[in-house]
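Q: Structure tokens for this one, please.
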Amino acid sequence: MTKKILAKSKELYGSVKKRITPAFLIMLALSLIFWYSGKLQYTYTTSIPITVSIEGERVRATCMVEGTGHNLLAARYFKRRVVKLQRFEVELLPVDSVSNTYEITPTSLQNVLSVRNSNLKILSVSRMPFVVLDEW
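A: Here is the predicted structure, written as tokens:
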């Protein structure tokens, strides 16, 4: 059964290869590139992970962002940098019954990330994991 399917697919590939010219394939590839580039100019909303480092302690925040497709693509796949913050830049709330452990308020982190990422509109930040920092 699989040998018949393999033979048929080789036969189909041979007949298609004879009919399709390289110029057609180049034009098809160019049209796909132009179409995709045109779609990236629209405004989209998605969630992207952003790594935040507060005085050496790294945590990952998931942010709901809005921006053009080009900016979102760049932020998600090409700008894999860590946003370095000082503890005075965000609001830290101490966690009850655990010493040296703090919770970052999402609104303060959203404000800082909005300033640092001017090409994206940060709509919201998910709840952050707790951060363990040394005493002030």
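A few notes: The longest strand covers residues 43-54. The helical segments are 2-19, 22-39, 69-78, 106-116.
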